[in-house]
Amino acid sequence: MIRMNKSIIMAIAWKDLKATFSSKKVWVPMVIIAVLICTVLPSVFAVLGLHTNMLAGEAQDIEKPIQAFIEKFPDEEMGEKLASLPDLGTKFVYFFMSFMMIPFFLIVVIINSLVTASNSFVGEKERKTLETLLFAPISITDLFIGKVLASLIPALGITIAVYLLDLIVINIIAYPYFGELLFVKSVWLLLIFWSLQHSFYLRSS
């Protein structure tokens, strides 16, 4: 059985977290990427879909496939909601915000985790502490878990913050059209729970 020293793991993670947030070149792009991908682009899409007729020209060509898709939609409640919406643009926006946004958040977590992970080892090399760290009396397991935590926590924190921002921004735009709050369906809550669960699992390992 592999034994892990939690104090060493947390010390490594805390050191890397301080290094990450002390450098604007690292955390500012992480925030900008998250806001652009998860808030700005969906907001623009929602405004265009709800306030313009951008799909009017293609409506006749794609109306039948869309209706067939709605009729066979596995979630009966969602299918009824989509069918009740007045036009194609509104249906696209509702479906996109309810389901297609989830990969965007997962992409942000992955990208930001990679950024912090690469910065962690590059920073050690720039500070000329990598060799000292490798030869320190700590196990590779403790070092690995500490580095993973330091990479995961900022990425998850930023993603959850952007999710809360979307709850406000997107719903201000879309609520008058749908009469309900987006991003609070069970699939979204499960996504947040899954992310937190994996974060706490790594933290307690």
TrEMBL record:
Keyword Transmembrane helix recorded: yes
Pfam families on file: ABC2_membrane_2
Keyword Lipid biosynthesis: no
Key words of the record: Membrane, Transmembrane, Transmembrane helix
Highest taxon of the lineage: Bacteria
TM ranges: 26-48, 92-117, 152-175, 182-202
An example molecular function term from Gene Ontology annotations: ABC-type transporter activity
GO cellular component, as recorded: plasma membrane
Name this polypeptide is given: ABC transporter permease
Organism taxonomic ancestry: Bacteria, Bacillati, Bacillota, Bacilli, Bacillales
